[in-house]
Structures are given as structure tokens and as C-alpha cells.
Design goal:
single chain; 289 residues; mainly alpha; MetI-like fold; 15 helices; globular; MetI-like
Length: 289
């Protein structure tokens, strides 16, 4: 294909635009990391931009010595891992039958799911339901009520609709049941969609905050994001002899930035392992054969 002058200008424009957008997303993170690694004097003087000034790991040492950070980290990992598994299991097992024309009442169920996408229940009825189910002050309150996202369900169903029906019919002729077809045929072909849904669900669980504030009062079950909020907005750090000594040498802003980095890095580490499938999954439902 011969590149015309218009195509070259368009490509240059896209390159510049995407570069500016990329920098606008990366530079704030770099600034946060630089502040978390800078000393008290440099931060208070406003000398920190995109490179640490007066390099120190004191903020991270203070955070890692706070036991409540580890409690919140443990709870967030449990919520993210098990919550994502529940999400993928429930979304897949509902999206698959809704994508098959031979199943009855699928249109009625789709309308009910669409209703929940447009209208959501208020906070008080949700709270009363969680209380009646005995899930207050448990991690289940942060996983089971959000077991299925209506939007992700429609995306997954759209992917299943693109699977060749001849493949599924031949499996049935070979004696495969529906669960075996789903496990051995449909799911292996759905890795891009599963990876995309998994990342979306995992990020949602890792950043879960409002529900934890409403449903959990016991300190041993709060997720990391709630603990992060306490540090960022109220400067509440764990009390110990070592931390009290460090607090006199560190800037509160540096501690806050370090907490943000600690809370962000774990979920960022998941993306490289799923990048290949995630890029493919972003095209789910966009092309219909």
C-alpha cells in the first residue's frame, strides 16, 4: 500500500496525540514514585518533580512496619482472587446458555439482566439484604453481591455468539454434555474474553472501597483501599517506637505517595501476564461473522 501525504500526516497526528495521552497518564505516576522516594526537606520545599531528591526508603519502611497495612493487603488479595473466580464462574455459566438459541426463556432473562444494568438498587435495601443474609463484617459482602456485572455478561455473551454452532453440534453428536462442551471446548476458545473480564473484575475488586465502608466495621476485615484512605486523608499510621522515630524525619506527603505506590503496583503486575489475551479480548463482540 502506497502511503499518501494525507496518510503520513494522519499517522504523525495519531503518534503525537497518543504520545501526549500516554505521558499524561505516566508522568503523574512517576511524580508519585519520585515523591515517595524523596526526603522530608525536598518534598516540603517543592523540589521534587520526576526524579527523587534526597533518596530515602523511609516511607516504605514505615508502611511495611504497619501491621494494619498487611491486614488490608491480605484482605484485598483474598477479595480479588476469590471474587474474580466467582465473577468469571457466574458470568460464564450464565452467558453461555443465554447465547444458545435452543435454550428457553433466554430473552426474558436477558431483559431482566438489562433491567439491572439500567436501574440499580439503592444503598439501604442493599444493606438490609446483606444484613439479613448474615454477611455483614465478612469478606463475602464484598464478593457475592457483585458476582455478575451486567455489562460484562453482555460482552461475554457476544463472544459466545461468535463461536461456530457447527463445532458445538458436532460435540453433542459425539456424546458430550453441555458442561463438558463448556469446559473442554467453549472455555479454551474463550481465553481472550476470560482474560479481559478477569482484569476488569480484578481491578474492580482491588479498588473496592465504598462497599467496605458500608458493610464492614471490624478492623481485621477492612481491605487495603480503606486503610489507604485513612492514611491519605487523616494521616493515621500504625503506632510503634520505630514508626514514631521515622515520622519525625519523613514528610506526610511522602508517606501518602508511598502508600499509593504500594496499593497500585500489585494490580499492575498482573497485566503483563495477561497482555496478549487482553489485547485480543478488547475486540470481543466488535466483529460479527
Amino acid at each position: 500500500m502506497i502511503m499518501t501525504r494525507g496518510h503520513k500526516i494522519f499517522n504523525i497526528f495519531n503518534l503525537v496525540l497518543l504520545g501526549v495521552l500516554g505521558l499524561s497518564m505516566v508522568l503523574p505516576l512517576i511524580h508519585i514514585i519520585a515523591q515517595s522516594l524523596s526526603n522530608n526537606t525536598a518534598i516540603n520545599a517543592g523540589d521534587v518533580s520526576f526524579w527523587p531528591v534526597g533518596f530515602t526508603l523511609g516511607s516504605y519502611k514505615l508502611i511495611l512496619e504497619d501491621p494494619t497495612i498487611w491486614i488490608g493487603f491480605r484482605n484485598s488479595v483474598i477479595i480479588t482472587v476469590f471474587g474474580t473466580f466467582i465473577n468469571l464462574f457466574m458470568t460464564t455459566t450464565l452467558a453461555y446458555p443465554l447465547s444458545r438459541p435452543e435454550y428457553l426463556y433466554r430473552k426474558s432473562i436477558l431483559l431482566l439482566v438489562l433491567f439491572t444494568l439500567i436501574f440499580s438498587a439503592p444503598l439501604i435495601p442493599n444493606y438490609l439484604l446483606i444484613k439479613q443474609l448474615g454477611m455483614l463484617n465478612t469478606l463475602w459482602a464484598l464478593m457475592l453481591p457483585m458476582a455478575i456485572s451486567a455489562f460484562n455478561l453482555f460482552v461475554m455473551r457476544s463472544f459466545f455468539l461468535n463461536l461456530p454452532s457447527e463445532l458445538l453440534d458436532s460435540a453433542r453428536m459425539d456424546g458430550c454434555g453441555e458442561f463438558r462442551i463448556l469446559w473442554n471446548i467453549v472455555l479454551p476458545l474463550s481465553k481472550p474474553a476470560m482474560a479481559t473480564m478477569g482484569i476488569m473484575y480484578a481491578v474492580g475488586h482491588w479498588n473496592r472501597y465504598a462497599e467496605a465502608v458500608f458493610y464492614i466495621d471490624h478492623r481485621q476485615w477492612i481491605p487495603l483501599q480503606v486503610r489507604l484512605r485513612e492514611i491519605v486523608f487523616t494521616d493515621q499510621m500504625g503506632q510503634s517506637d520505630v514508626s514514631s522515630e521515622l515520622l519525625q524525619l519523613l514528610s506526610p506527603e511522602g508517606i501518602k505517595m508511598a502508600v499509593i505506590v504500594v496499593a497500585t503496583i500489585p494490580i499492575l503486575c498482573v497485566y503483563p501476564f495477561l497482555q496478549k489475551h487482553f489485547i485480543q479480548g478488547m475486540m470481543v463482540g466488535s466483529v460479527k461473522s
